[in-house]
Amino acid sequence: MSLLGASAPDFSLLDNARQAVTLESFRGAKVVLAFFPAAFTGVCEKELCTFRDALAELNGLNAKVLAISVDAPFSNAAFATKNNLSFPVLSDYTRATVNAYGVAHDGFAGMPGYVAAKRSVFIVDEKGTVTYEWIAPNPGVEPDYAAVKNALA
Prior knowledge:
By secondary structure, this protein is α/β, with parallel strands linked by helices. The chain has one domain: Glutaredoxin. Helices cover 27% and strands 25% of the residues. It is built from 5 helices and 9 strands. It has helices at 42-53, 55-60, 73-82, 96-100, 145-152; strands at residues 12-14, 20-22, 30-35, 63-69, 89-91, 104-106, 115-117, 120-124, 130-135. The strands form 3 sheets. A 5-stranded mixed sheet has the order 5-4-3-8-9. It has a two-stranded antiparallel ribbon with strand order 1-2. The longest helix is centred in the N-terminal third of the chain and has 12 residues, at 42-53. It is globular and about 40 Å long.
């Protein structure tokens, strides 16, 4: 189910300090939602560090980055600290948001019953509409960062 052109599902997720962050609180800015499968894994680390390194450019395009995984806020906090991530890394430990965005990865890493986030990127415009959507064909594939920047420009 594509969300392109639809209102982005709002959420309230805990950040690294266990404070609630809502998508609605970013209204008026473009938001890059970067869903990732698991903290402390190679591809996820590379992806989020790439967004970290492009943050000034993305902010210049009136865009904010929010990273989302199903990992606990404690794990996300350690992951963010290790990688010097200056954008929020949010915990969807209930899996409500990955389900709302259609990016729940059931049986992740061959573990029956374990649900992670599919690696995916959504761009939400200033009014709350999804204007870009990319979902990885498998967890080892990184997003096309140039395409994300072009979609924001």
